Amino acid sequence: MSQFLRRQWTRVIEMRMERKLLLVFLLLVTMPLTFISYFSYVNYAESTQRTAIRYSTNMLEGMMGRVDDYIEDMVNMTSIPAYQDDIKFNLSRSNEYYAMREQIGADGNASAAPAFDQLLQIQRGIQGNVSFINNIKRGATSVYIFDLHGNAYSQAESGGLRQNLADSYRTWESAASVSGGEPVLLGTRKYVSMLNSDKYAFTVVRKIIDKALQPIGLIAVDADMSVIQDQIKTLDDVTQGESIIVDETGRVIYSADRTRMTADISDEPMFANAKGEQGSFYGEIAGERQLFIYMTSPNTEWKAIAAIPERALTKDSRVIRNVTLAATLATVALALLISTLVSFALTKPLRKMMQLMRTVQDGDFKATFQVRYGDEIGQLGRQFNRMIARIEELIQDIFRSESRRREAEMHALQSQINPHFMYNTLETIRMAAELNDDADAAEMIQLLGKQLRYSISNVNEEVTLERELVHIGHYVQLLNRRYPNRFRLQTQIPPELLAYPMAKLLLQPLVENATLHGLDDNKPYMSLDIEARQTDRYVEIRVMDDGLGMEPETLERLRAKLVRGAPDGDEGIGLVNVNERIKLHWGIAYGIDIESASGLFTAVTIRLPLMTAGRGEQSEISLDRLERGG
Question: Could you list the residue ranges that cross the membrane (predicted)?
Fold first, then answer.
């Protein structure tokens, strides 16, 4: 990881100046804006959530309080028969009446049946009180009073009565029988009304006790679910979610989704996570994230759970976020535009100076920087102009000094050797060899004479690539005389480059280096390939052999010597000298490059400048003969 960060930091450091300035400007603008926008959005979203939880909790608390009050009124309604002697009297008569009927039915004495008008009196007496009870609390759908035989006396609003009261009575009587006369709250159950419609109601039931504390009947009060429906609808309109009421076992008391009425949701997360008296938590319904807020009634242990979609909670904060984001992007875009203009304006003089430096690097010391202002860049430009002028003076001094030194060296060399004496002596030896029928010695002496003549002539003389190749051919022929048929020279030179003018003795040291260090005794011969090509910027001449090659360490060491310009010991002297001659003659942009693979090849490439080639001397031997290596 540290390496990765270091590389990235290096890339930043190596960026162009205008990009660095642009990056700095952007960071200075975007980072504060981003932090401010982010923290504002987060704080606003959290504040919105806290407000929603507090407000929804208050609404749930108020709703559950009203539901508790409603249930308490239902409980009070079930206690009325205990204080109404008329109800207890008529219930006792109803019990006696139906007991007598059962007895008569068992005895088979139909003449002793009680009068029907007695039953009508009982019904009128009880139903009148039921109607009174039903009108006490608005919203109680149905009130039922049963005698001990399960006979019902009821009063309800239109169509509200249950069809099958016998089944309901058995459930109610079973629940009330173990309560000891206390009211029992039964959860929501589904029933079919007298109008054949499905309805839901929760019920409060209680035993009716006479003065002797003996049960004489049962009262059941069904709730009007529209009361809870109105409360929950008000809450859902505010929260834009769905609310639900469940009992302590997880059975649904009321849900706006009618399919979930009376369902057991004890295993669902929305109920399982609603622990304690009240609180909130996040969950999902149908893949949508919801905020659940719950409140528990201390009277009934019922829980009201409100599910608020997160999108409803964050709607206002999303608007704030989008507005903030749009403002931030607009600010960043404006800052980017201004930063771009400023950075390019600041770095334009630097780019101009870099172009001038490249021009100077290519050898043009006439370039000058136009100073317009007196700022730091203007001062730098003045120093640049002074530096270029001084460099040009120094180069001229060095050039004159080197010219004088080379002339002195050549004069010293030529004073030590008399070329005419060498030529005449070698020619005399060659003629003697021919007279003695020693053709090989004569040819070798002739080749040595040509090489000597080529080598010790004016060192400042420019020759064509073709003449340099002829000289290489003579050298390879001499090698093949010493090592018979061990070297094969091949050339691939475009015709237009044969007349390319170049300094003398650039290729012979390369071939000599290849034959001296690269000869592989395990191969029957060494191939020496010389190729030339012209690119957009250079003329490249490549000398390649298929000899021993070099190890990577040796190759890197030799390349380092080329960069330093001075060999250590005897290794690489020829290559370093050729490289230095090229740079001295044409500039530091030119020179040689080396490639090699151990056991495969070594290739040395000379890069020379493009220039108009003039025809030089005609070659003394044909190139096809050179390719045969003599």
Answer: 21-41, 325-347
DSSP for 168-207, please give it.
HHHHHHHHHTTTTT--EEEEEEEEEBTTS-EEEEEEEEEE
Instruction: Report d(CA 88, CA 180) in Å as an integer.
Output: 18
SS3 of residue 346 by DSSP: helix
Give, for 302, the enclosing helix (H) or strand (E). Answer: none
Q: Which residues contact 124 (CB under 8 A, 6 or more apart)?
A: none
Q: Which residue has 């540290």 as its token pair?
A: 2
Contact, 284 vs 315, CB < 8 A?
A: no
Per residue in 262-319, pLDDT (tens digit) is 888 888 888 888 888 888 888 888 788 888 889 899 888 899 998 888 777 777 666 7
Q: E strands within 431-523?
A: 462-464, 487-492, 501-503
601: left (phi over 0), alpha (psi -120 to 50) or beta: beta
Q: 486 and 516 in contact (C-beta within 8 Å)?
A: no
Please tell me the distance from the alpha carbon of residue 546 to that of residue 275, in angstroms, as a whole number. Answer: 85
Region of 372 on the Ramachandran plot (φ > 0 left; ψ -120 to 50 alpha; else beta): alpha
Q: 611 with 585: CB under 8 angstroms?
A: no
Give the tokens for residue 489. Answer: 């020279």
Strand partners, 488: 527
pTM reported for the whole predicted model: 0.48
Give the span between the Cα atoms of 257 and 630, in whole angstroms.
105
Residue listed under structure tokens 């002339």:
407
Mode of pairing for the β-strands spanning 538-545 and 601-609: antiparallel
